[in-house]
Amino acid sequence: MGQILRWNCPKNLKARVSACQQRFSLTRSRNTGGERNGYHKTQTSDCVRMVHARRKFYDIHIANPSPLAGEALRRIAALYEIEAAIRGKPADERRRVRQQHSQPLVEAMHAWLADVLDRISGRSTLAQAIRYALNHWPGLILFLADGRVELDT
Fold first, then answer.
1. Taking Cα atoms as reference points, which of 68, 151, 70, 135 lies closest to residue 103?
2. Which of 27, 54, 86, 152 is the most buried (most CB within 10 A)?
3. What sign results for the dihedral spanned by CA atoms 1, 21, 123, 73?
4. Exposed, middle or buried by CB within 10 Å (0-12, 13-18, 19+), for 75?
5. Is 148 helix (H, G, I), strand (E, B) or coil?
6. What are the backbone angles phi and psi of residue 43, rounded to the nearest 5°?
7. What is the pLDDT of residue 152?
């Protein structure tokens, strides 16, 4: 299966700058048996930058030191530490390390975020930050499946 990383940006300049700063698309082309005719089935997923999720927790923690926002920041920092150790390595090795070390942290963070969201006021800024992360979860964790994708694209 061939994979192509490409920017997925609108034509409008203002919208394009905003969208390109926040995400790019991972496009996968699969041979569906009609390759002789040039037909490929394409699957596109939005990749969301972890830095945007992190920033929401950071702003909350700075405005009003919150132990829960601080915990979210510590969990995200652990992912950045793993990324720093594998930066510059081949994609296959990065994927293997991420599967072994980052994936358990990501799974624990997802469960923790869901639990915290159930325990806090739904109108709080912390709840908004958690909902942002959970709503964008598939894009936030694409880096686990592909060694070429950065944690922050």
1. 151
2. 54
3. positive
4. middle
5. coil
6. -125, 125
7. 84
Q: Report the Cα 21 to chain-centroid distance in Å.
A: 13
**Smallest Cα–Cα separation from 107: which of 66, 81, 78?**
78
∠ Cα 124 80 68 (to 5°): 25
Q: Which of 132, 135, 115, 126 is nearest to 69 (CA)?
A: 126
Residues constituting the chain: 153
**Which residue in this structure is represented by tokens 């905003």?**
18
Backbone angles phi, psi at 40, to 5 degrees: -130, 140
CA distances from 15 to 22, 25, 52 (A): 11, 16, 17
> Mind giving me the DSSP string for 65-111?
--HHHHHHHHHHHHHHHHHHHHTTS-HHHHHHHIIIIIHHHHHHHHH
